[in-house]
Amino acid sequence: MTSTPPRGARRRRPVLIPAVAVLAAATAGVSAALGGLAQAPDTSVEKLGKGAEFDQGKMLTVVQDAVVRSGGKFEMGVSSKRYLQIILKVTNETDRTIQAQEMDHALPTVRADSTTIKPKPGDLGPYIRSISQGHSYAQLHPGVPTTVIMSFELEPGRPVPKRLSIDLGAFELHEDFYSRQRAWSQIFQDTAVTPSPAASATPASSPSGTDSPRLGLAEPKTRLPPVVAAQVDLPVRVETS
């Protein structure tokens, strides 16, 4: 597939983005790559290539690279393990500092050779950090283009994937009716889906008493999938040094 070159002009930031077609249904089965579920990418959304810029509303995102490397670089991972890392250039378009981990929502689905590696039932998701002067940080400051790395641990003996397909979500600015305060929210589709039994068979409580799925709490019986505003397809390279 021929990569789409970076766009010369920045698109207008949407306030409201209409929902697109529902994601293609996943085909169950254990994959030979990264242990995900076999799934074909949606064919109804805008297709982009490596280096293309896309305005997601809350952030301006460029998918720059995908690489498999040993851990330790930029203080991420350990040297005895391999990691699949997605390299992004992200500009926080809000008026306040946000967490780099919010890119987990901005890229809701990642496929390696047509196999879904994110999200995965029972998995806490990738480790995401912003990079500056060779060090990793947790924050993205407003208006500053920043390198962000989304890192997946590659299981021992698993082959290196050849290509990635990445879904890009979209965000809209809402104003609270009572407080008149505005905040960015992810846009979701209108049709709910039911998670697999494995995804909902997590403990229903936590010591902190919070209701966060990243703490291993039970997911609701149904959920609204995020809108996919665009998809990026790019090759995976292997870093040897």
TrEMBL record:
Segment forming the signal sequence: 1-32
Answer yes or no on keyword Nuclease: no
Instruction: Kindly provide the name given to this protein in its UniProt entry.
Output: DUF4352 domain-containing protein
Region (Disordered) residue spans = 195-226
Low complexity: compositionally biased ranges: 195-213
Q: Which residues cross the membrane?
A: none
Q: Does the keyword Signal apply?
A: yes
Which keywords does this chain's UniProt record carry?
Signal
